[in-house]
Design a protein that fits this description.
By secondary structure, the chain is an alpha+beta fold. The protein has a single domain (about 5-195), classed as Alpha-Beta Complex (Nucleoside Triphosphate Pyrophosphohydrolase), CATH 3.90.79.10. The protein has five helices and eleven strands; from the N terminus they run ααββββαββββαβββα. The chain has helices at about 5-10, 20-30, 80-90, 145-150, 180-195; strands spanning about 35-45, 45-55, 65, 70, 100-105, 110, 115-125, 140-145, 155-160, 165-170, 175-180. Strands 1, 2, 3, 4, 5, 6, 7 and 8 form an eight-stranded mixed β-sheet that branches. Strands 9-10-11 form a three-stranded antiparallel β-sheet. The chain is globular, with a radius of gyration of 16 Å.
């Protein structure tokens, strides 16, 4: 799949249904902290890749976990999309002028009290990542072709307060992508594959 096909599939397909976890969490959790992330698709050597980062272990929220560039919505942000773009620039040096946002997936609620809005974008030109060590321990990419293969995206039921919820995870090389990031990847891949 190239960028033209990616954009066409993204635009033409209808979104698959969210996991039941989302509606259940919406009823349980109130006062969720708003956050936004950038699911950036970068073409490298004629292959599409998803940009990911590993969070430093000193952070209070989700230390050491794999995530998309992004973070909490600040009062100075004019929109959730502005949050995702600002954070991507701060965390990995991806300038907002080098990004084309093509849409957003439904907001994802977490057990840790966040409601995360993911924005899907393509990177216009190659760039050299400049990571902020205060927010990012590692920058890496995963081929979209790997993620699109259903058997690479797994889930297990997890019981919390007597209710079972699916928890998504994706092992990739030395990385273990799980939780909200894996769930958003799964939703994007199901959207791209949806007929």
């Amino acid at each position: 799949m190239d960028l033209v096909e990616f954009k066409a599939r993204y635009s033409l397909n209808t979104l698959p249904e969210l996991d039941p976890i989302q509606s259940d969490l919406g009823q349980v959790e109130t006062n969720l902290r708003q956050a936004a992330v950038l699911i950036a698709i970068h073409e490298i050597n004629n292959q599409l890749h998803v940009i990911l980062t590993r969070r430093p272990t000193h952070l209070r929220a989700h230390p050491g976990q794999i995530s998309f560039p992004g973070g909490k919505v600040e009062q100075t942000d004019i929109s959730y999309q502005a949050t995702a773009l600002r954070e991507a620039q701060e965390e990995i040096g991806l300038l907002n002028t080098n990004v084309e946002v093509i849409g957003a997936l439904p907001a994802h609620k977490t057990f840790t009290g966040f409601e995360i809005t993911p924005f899907v974008a393509t990177v216009k030109q190659s760039f050299v990542p400049v990571i902020d060590p205060g927010e990012v321990d590692e920058y890496f990419t995963v081929p979209l072709s790997f993620l699109l293969k259903r058997y690479n995206r797994q889930s297990q039921l997890y019981t919390r307060k007597g209710v079972q919820y699916p928890v998504h995870f994706i092992p990739y090389k030395q990385h273990f992508i799980w939780g909200a990031t894996a769930a958003m990847i799964d939703l994007l891949c199901r959207h791209l594959s949806h007929n």
